[in-house]
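DUF5130 family protein
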Amino acid sequence: MKGLTAAQGDDVRKALHTAERRSGLRFGVFLGEPVGGRRHFAERLHAALGAEADDAVVVFVDPRGRALEIVTGENARRRLSDGACRMTAMSMATAFSVGDLIGGLLYGIGALGEQATARR
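Structure:
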C-alpha cells in the first residue's frame, strides 16, 4: 500500500481480511490523492467493485489533503448506518491529526467490521 511500510501494509491487509471474515462484507482501503472531488472519487472507487459493490465498504484516505471518506454499498449500508460511519471517521481523523495514520486505519477497519458484524 502506497505510503505505508511493508509491515504496515501487512497489518492493514490482515485487518481487512478479519473485517471481511467476521462481517461477510468486502472492505477496501485507498490511500492517496483523489482525481477530482474526494467524495466523487471515493464513490467511483466503490462503483469499480462492480457486482461486489452492494456488499462493500471503501475507506478513502488522502493524508496530504487531510481527506477521509467512507462509502458503503446498498447491502452494507443496512448494517453500517451513516451515523456509525461518521463516528468511526471522527475517531480515525483524530488519530490522523496526531500523525498516527496506521493506528487510525486499523482502528477504523476494525470498528466498521465489528459494527457490521453486530448488526448481521
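The mean pLDDT is 94.
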